[in-house]
Amino acid sequence: MSLEPIEPDTALELYLADKDNELAEASLEAHEYRLGHFVRWCDHQDIENLNNLSGRQLQRYRVWRRDEGDLSPVSEKTQMDTLRVFIRWLETVDGVEQDLSQKVLSPDITPEQNSRDVMLDTDRAAKVLAHLEKYHYASIEHVTIALMWHTMMRVGAVHALDLKDYHPSEQYVEVRHRPEAGTPIKNQGDGERLVALSNDLCKLLDDWIDNQRRNMTDDNDRSPLLTTAQGRPCKTTLRAYVYRWTQPCRYDGECPHDRDPDECEATDRDHLSKCPSSVSPHAIRRGSITHSLNSDMPDKVVSDRANVSQEVIDTHYDRRTERERMEQRRDYLDDL
């Protein structure tokens, strides 16, 4: 087989273009992010042509990425599995030797490791929201985190909300898949739903709209529910809000890691996630789902509200202990 020379960044560009119609936008962005590290490593190693890429080099990259990114086994597996898909694609376009993808190794993980336990628990969520309500009431950060916690919505769904999607009189929001207008959601049409809101959350949204929200449109001439001076905030910005305000020094005034906030790099906007205690939007979603289950919200209601199957809830979201589940089941015995 005759290979055709191809540079790492060119290969990534062609790969993403090829997968554009196959992968959802969020998945495409995830692939671009993960493979961007590989392109960066190739640059460090002066690898300008992937034709000569070897299994030994792929293993060196794996070790480098694990150490450089301080990756957990689960994260390492995710990144290497994506790299394997990329290398397999390169085989089809004569960019690397055939069967090289079989030499991309990733760690074996247990089901317990695969079910990530990181979440924002109820007590911490209450502290974060209480601090925001007292000192930053109806700010975009307050509204963003309150929406995520009380509705269990993914960051993409919050990002996609338009002003017209909020129905204050009926107290609900519409979650809609609008890929042609720049806001696709996970599960696409199957992810569309109406989400009921509490009185308190509606009061917060009303105050945000009346007093804080900028009257801005996005690049598609839509009126987002959440706005900044630039229009609709990107999902990266929404994630940054979560990372920032789940840092204990922000809402408790103390650092459990004995760091000086004035010198801690995690207080910098570009490094917010480096705080060991800060969490991602998905951890808020996991915590909210667990909180709802602990509050005796029926599993079916949680499943529909969060747009996630019962099987996935059991495997990835439900953090109740076996004893907690037993005690909740006991409450139904008197009705038998």
TrEMBL record:
<dbReference type="GO" id="GO:0015074">
    <property type="term" value="P:DNA integration"/>
</dbReference>
<dbReference type="InterPro" id="IPR002104">
    <property type="entry name" value="Integrase_catalytic"/>
</dbReference>
<dbReference type="Pfam" id="PF00589">
    <property type="entry name" value="Phage_integrase"/>
</dbReference>
<keyword id="KW-0238">DNA-binding</keyword>
<dbReference type="GO" id="GO:0006310">
    <property type="term" value="P:DNA recombination"/>
</dbReference>
<dbReference type="GO" id="GO:0003677">
    <property type="term" value="F:DNA binding"/>
</dbReference>
<dbReference type="InterPro" id="IPR011010">
    <property type="entry name" value="DNA_brk_join_enz"/>
</dbReference>
<keyword id="KW-0233">DNA recombination</keyword>
<dbReference type="InterPro" id="IPR004107">
    <property type="entry name" value="Integrase_SAM-like_N"/>
</dbReference>
<dbReference type="InterPro" id="IPR013762">
    <property type="entry name" value="Integrase-like_cat_sf"/>
</dbReference>
<protein>
    <submittedName>
        <fullName>Site-specific integrase</fullName>
    </submittedName>
</protein>
<feature type="region of interest" description="Disordered">
    <location>
        <begin position="263"/>
        <end position="283"/>
    </location>
</feature>
<dbReference type="Pfam" id="PF02899">
    <property type="entry name" value="Phage_int_SAM_1"/>
</dbReference>
<keyword id="KW-0229">DNA integration</keyword>
<dbReference type="InterPro" id="IPR010998">
    <property type="entry name" value="Integrase_recombinase_N"/>
</dbReference>
<dbReference type="InterPro" id="IPR050090">
    <property type="entry name" value="Tyrosine_recombinase_XerCD"/>
</dbReference>
<feature type="compositionally biased region" description="Basic and acidic residues">
    <location>
        <begin position="263"/>
        <end position="273"/>
    </location>
</feature>
<feature type="domain" description="Core-binding (CB)">
    <location>
        <begin position="6"/>
        <end position="91"/>
    </location>
</feature>
<dbReference type="InterPro" id="IPR044068">
    <property type="entry name" value="CB"/>
</dbReference>
